[in-house]
Every structure is written in structure tokens, then in C-alpha cells.
Amino acid sequence: MPQRALVLGASGGVGGELARELLRAGWQVRGLKRGLGVPRLLRDGIEWLDGDALKEADVLSAAEGCAVIAHAVNPPGYRNWGELVLPMLANTLAAARQQGATILLPGTVYNYGPDTFPLIAEDAPQAPITRKGAIRVELERRLQAAAEAGELRVIIVRAGDFFGPQARNSWFSQGMLKPGRVPSAMQWPGRPGVGHQFAYLPDVARTMRRLLEVRERLPAFSRFNMAGHWDPDGRALAQAVCRVLQRRGLAVPRLKAFPWWLMRLAAPFVTTLRELLDMRYLWQTEVRMTNARLLEVLGEEPHTPLDEAIEATLVGMGCLAQR
After folding, report:
1. Is 118 helix (H, G, I), strand (E, B) or coil?
2. Which residues cross the membrane (predicted)?
């Protein structure tokens, strides 16, 4: 029989890509959406339920009969992290315990501080230097405690900065390029010559799906890093964008420095900008995750060639027409 998964955050970038990947693999997928207006709606193959990830009863009901709960949800508008992130996780934990489900979590690099740089293995110590990072560490600690108590299984997949056709809230689609038009300029948030790690979102979803397929063979609590696409000096992604545009007969964009000074001016008035400034340190020094454990389990990491991934991303952003 088809396996069933509840994807919390299925309308977002990571959750949406994972939901589509699971559907293609024959899974039944449920999503939870506030203000749906009807109790249940089948759309794009996803069974949508009206509910809120902040309400335990809604999550418990939505998870009924699910073998997997993907916790890919963030607080509404990315606000009030300190107050909402852990309560949402508590609801997911309650539902997973009730169903005996595996929890799948997209991890972040926020968990780590400079003491682990430049290379981060899966078992590297987590000593964050930001409030957001501390919350993520506590989130993973609670998952690990539940798994080690024999209550459920947990898989964490950590990757670089996302890009992809459906990666809505990403540095690539919101900070480096402007959606909806052919790029005339591309902004680089990092220091010249400093490498940065990226992950193509469909590759992330494929990796997650393949790990779910072998979850019974994994330790109850498992962390995996993805290597993704490594930009060694801040130019590789820009050069790929240029190649894609040149093949289309279009002018290449200029590479400019990201205006951090402007963000500092606006940060006192915009919470999201303050949080982005907190994470600037990840662009100022080399931070690279190693994927040895993933290769040990899967034998390979799903990896789309860079130019192909960039072209699909630009089409998805509305910067290029579909061929």
C-alpha cells in the first residue's frame, strides 16, 4: 500500500518540493493550511486539511495514519521565532509519538559557530553565536532525546543555501537576483574570494525521499549533511548564470557587492533584516559541510549539474521563458 506522509510547510519551498517528490514516488501526501475554508481539499495530488501547525489537535488529526511527518514549517512571516518554533515542534513530537512516525527535519547551518569552521561534519559540536541558532540547537536536542528514548525516529538533512524553481524565500531569489525579469545585475553577499555552499532544492528533496526509503536501517536519530554545489570564490554561480543567459542570446549581468550597509540602516525597523544581519557571519568566512555519512548510506548524493539547475531556477523565478 502507498505510504502516507504529513508535510508541515507543504506550501513553502522545502516542504513543497518534498511533497512533489514524494508524490512522484507514489506516496500519499497531506498538507496542513490555515484558513483553507473547507475541511479537506485535494489539489495537485496533495490532500490539504484546514488547520494550524501551532495547534496540537490539528496536527494530531492531520497525522493520523502517517508513517512520516516532515517538519518543514516556520512561524508565520518568519516572526516570533523565540515564541513559536519550539511549541510547533512539540505538536509534531506529540503526533509522531501517537502514530509511531518518523520525523524528517530540514536542518540549518545556524547551529554552528566559528569553532567548527571551515569543514563541518555531521557530529560537529553545535555552539551557535545567534539567538536563532540557539533555538535550532534546542530543537534538535529535543528530537534527539525523543529518539534515544525509543519514542520515534528522526532524520535531519542539512544543506547549504537553497536555490531552485520553487525556492521562494532564498538568498538566490531574493537577495542575489530579482524575480520576474532578465537579470541585468547579480549581487554577491559574501566577501570576495570566500567560498559558499548552495543546495539545489530538487536535489535536497530527492535526498530526503531516498533516506526515508531506508529509514528502518538507520539509527533512531540520524543526521546527514549534503555537499550540494560549492562556490569556491563567489563567482561560480554568477558564471553559471552568465553561461545560461549567453546560450539564450542575452546579455550577461554585472556582479555587484550586496548592499549590507542598506540593510543596517533598515534593520531597526524590519525584523527579517535584523535576523539576516545576524547571519552575515556565514558569508564572511568559509563554511562547508561534508557529506561522508550520506555517501556511506546512499552511495551517492543526488546532484543536478549547475548550469541545468540555474536555468531551471531562472525559469521558475520568471527571469527566463520556459523552452
Report:
1. coil
2. none
Can you tell me which residue has the cell 542575489? Answer: 176
Three cell numbers written together for 2: 502507498
At 268, which amino acid appears? P
Can you tell me the distance from the alpha carbon of 90 to that of 194, in angstroms, rounded to the nearest whole number?
38
Distances in Å between the alpha carbon of 17 and those of 14, 29, 73, 106?
A: 5, 12, 13, 12
Q: Nearest to residue 284, comparing CAs of 123, 125, 114?
A: 114
Pick the CATH number of 4-163+199-230+285-304 from 3.40.50.720, 3.40.50.300, 2.40.370.10, 3.90.1570.10: 3.40.50.720
Cβ contacts of residue 141 below 8 Å, gap of 6+?
none
Residue 120's nearest CA partner among 233, 277, 230 is: 230
pLDDT in tens, 260-306: 888 888 878 777 777 778 888 999 999 999 999 999 999 999 999 99
CA-CA distance, 134 to 129, in Å (whole number)? 7
User: In the predicted model, what is the mean pLDDT of residues 238-245?
Assistant: 95
- Predicted TM-score (pTM) of the model is 0.95
